[in-house]
Specification:
Shape: elongated
CATH class of the largest domain: Alpha Beta
Largest sheet: 7 strands, mixed
Strand order of the largest sheet: 7-6-8-9-10-11-12
Number of strands: 12
Number of helices: 12
């Protein structure tokens, strides 16, 4: 090959090497840019005390963020950990979210909030509806939380009293009523129920369960005592076992009032309380404000202002009950 030919071949080879190197550099730059962009997408830790199939908590939180314009895997990434109703798993799951360096941890129920607080004092924690956040020490006050915790909370003490009052109105001849609660629940609600029962002229029997296996025995005890109605307190285990509890109440022919409408699909007579899905979606607003710069210590804790009374006439008829006109007029919804 002549000298000119060799020079031409060398130039072509050098050009190919330059082009290959340029393409490689562009690819690496694009990859680095994508990685940097991904690192800026906020990771939201959802700590769910429930089994995947037992609660819409995680779905409602995501739905709330979607309504605010967030797109999963594009503008937000979720790290969801389920405890399947086992509170003993919550600390390890919360610690795992901290290791994943999430921007916010959102959860519900007192035991889950407590586990998140034990895992971190730096990462913001959003409560998606818990019983009396002040009494349980999660925040200094509703107006000024003062730490890394904020969100929504309700006063279950007042709700426990109100549910007994509604049972008395629905069943005017009622004299003996049972309260079913998980043993880890706040004691203030049980004390409030006892005080309310005394004021209403009711005999109240507090039945505590620590494990789902104790539910059958609890209902057998209700039969032995001869209670004529039941009020069920909310907790992670109670919610996870909601359908079973409602079925047991129906099987033992005990009219029951529950904290949420979802129980009525399986056998509950009435429900009274705030809309849990609405409270869960409200948590998304807190998440948005925090990841856009707000400090949880300065975000007041909100309480629900709307409470719904739902009555199932279908199960009333099954139980052979004639509900008072007073309760039917008060009901926000009647299931036929």
């Amino acid at each position: 090959m002549c000298v000119v030919g060799r020079l031409t071949a060398l130039r072509r080879a050098a050009g190919l090497r330059w082009a290959t190197t340029t393409l490689l550099l562009l690819a690496l730059t694009a990859q680095a840019a994508l990685a940097q962009q991904a690192s800026r997408i906020p990771r939201i830790g959802i700590l769910s005390p429930y089994a995947v199939s037992a609660s819409s908590f995680h779905d409602d939180v995501k739905r709330g963020l979607t309504d605010l314009g967030y797109v999963e895997r594009t503008t937000v990434v979720y790290e969801t950990r389920f405890a399947d109703g086992r509170t003993d798993q919550l600390p390890a799951l919360a610690a795992d979210l901290v290791r994943r360096k999430v921007a916010v941890i959102v959860t519900t129920t007192a035991s889950a909030v407590r586990a998140a607080m034990q895992a971190t004092t730096a990462i913001p924690i959003v409560m998606g509806g818990v019983d009396d956040a002040v009494e349980q020490g999660f925040v200094a006050s509703l107006a000024k939380p003062g730490g890394n915790v904020t969100g929504t909370s309700w006063l279950n003490v007042e709700l426990s009293e109100k549910r007994l009052e509604l049972l008395k109105q629905a069943l005017p001849g009622l004299s003996r009523v049972a309260v079913l609660r998980e043993a880890v629940g706040a004691g203030a609600t049980a004390r409030a129920a006892m005080a309310a029962a005394q004021a209403l002229g009711l005999q109240v029997y507090i039945l505590e369960v620590r494990d789902p296996n104790e539910l059958e025995d609890a209902f057998s005890e209700m039969d032995r005592i001869g209670v004529a109605a039941l009020s069920v307190f909310e907790s992670p285990m109670i919610t996870a076992e909601g359908r079973r509890i409602a079925h047991l109440a129906l099987r033992h022919r005990i009219p029951a009032i529950f904290p949420d409408r979802s129980f009525l699909e399986a056998g509950g007579l009435m429900s009274y309380g705030p809309s849990l899905p609405r409270m869960y979606r409200q948590a998304a607003t807190y998440i948005h404000r925090i990841i856009t710069g707000a400090r949880p210590a300065e975000l007041p804790v909100e309480q629900p202002t709307l409470f719904a009374l739902v009555v199932s006439q279908r199960f009333a008829r099954f139980l052979g009950l004639s509900l008072s006109e007073t309760i039917l007029v008060r009901a926000d919804e009647i299931i036929e």
